[in-house]
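haha ok so turns out i had the wrong file open the whole time. this is the CORRECT one, sorry everyone. sequence first:
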Amino acid sequence: MSTKNRLHRMNALSSRNSNPLIRNVFIVLLTIFVFPFQLYAQEITSFPRSTPEAEGVSSSGIINFLDAVAKSKHEFHSFMMLRHGKVIAEGWWSPYRPDLKHTLYSTSKSFTATAVGFAVAEKRLTVDDKVITFFPDDLPETISPYLSELRVKHLLSMSVGHQTDPTWEVAANHENWVKAFLATPIIHEPGTRFLYNSVATYMLSAIVQKVTGEKIVDYLKPRLFDPLGIQGMDWETDPRGINTGGWGLRLKTEDMTKFGQLFLQKGVWQGRQILPSAWVEEATTMKIEQDPGAPQARKDTSDWLQGYCYQMWRSRHNSYRADGAYGQFIIIMPEKDAVIAITAETPDMQSELNLVWEYILPSIHTEALPANPVELQKLNKQLASLALPLPKRNTSVLESKVAGKTYDCDSDNGGPDSMGFVFKDSVCHLVLEIDSGTYRFTFGAGQWKEDETTKYGPYLVSALKGNRMGLPPFKVAGSYTWKSETTLELTLRYIESPHTETIRCRFEGELIFVDFESLFNASDKTKTFKGVLHKE
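then structure:
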């Protein structure tokens, strides 16, 4: 029952009683149980907003940061900055929006470790527990000494002892990932060497599910997500219904900052200790060096050589972060009392972080700054107008000639079975026939057209079993242009992920040559396939 319905029902019950004592009892019950809940729910919905200068940050510094982003090779999707627990800058590059979730990739790992932290606090496990004790039915015939000594803390600190990351072998080739992980030889003594290992994080998810009986997304809901006011999240699973742990969580940008602020506040939220401060301290301090032999000059310029914690990275400037592929960051700066969340698609994450250190960090001051209405107005205008480039609105005489036509394609070469085009009112409707089904997309001329699709888009871990299992239809935004009289370019953004797919169609008489391009195959020269006009 909603709070509103509870209030209505209790008020109705109260009004039926003429006895003043009974009415007073109802009023007390309302005051004790309903109103605090209502106020608490309102408090956790969103952070308070403030201005940069009021919280000791220069608006011009943030402007310089945004200008640098615009000139860089990075494609930002969102940016939000907190200072002293207040939002001082936030922006989404259209067509991305604040109400959309975003694929976090390995930023998911920090949430998985937090599930472990709650389980430790509830005495369901300890970080010194041996991993083999949780899975007696999945053990190999011979248990090596190193496997026998593998503990939860080694999974948390990416120090399992494997020679190479077994994630792809385990998760792409096996239904039972736990069994495959435990069968993977451990070459080095656990705890002695760092090796990034996403399936080790998956094992943490499997352990928490084993001891709690719940997937970690469900286990975290009353402990983390509900108190922080995080709603609508989802998390991929493996083929056996275990959350993938090392990737697959989707949250909104402000949800990311809530997680960062919780850690900044040592596990306290709205005056309540929801995560033990001892766990926050344990999870954010260095457990192992990534490359102990690296020269100091290299360490001084790398945020990947500052030490690894429990599924978090130490960063330069005495900060730490949750970190996901292609630029998904939650940056926590305790000395500055600041949190920054970024979603993006970038091939160079160090360069992305460098922009934060070069422009944002120097703009943070100890005391409040004098109001600067001119710069603040400029900043707010810039934040409100952020947008990724739209394909230009170009036309071609071919548009009317291919409208209503369907092309049979070379599906054996990786393409769809067929492609059909309809042009109407500055919108291109594309129909793809693929073995997995029929998919329809809309693309606007000089504008984004939003839609949903069940067709999977580009994804780093698409080859793994259980790929995006159980997720709802994917939100997309499409726009089209004619790059030349014979070449149609369709841009399809999967706006709840970092990735975009560009479909280029070149028409030659009754033939079509099609190229599906994304970050993952941009250098592949063999991805073009051919189609021919379908004739009844």
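The longest strand covers residues 75-83.
again sry for the mixup
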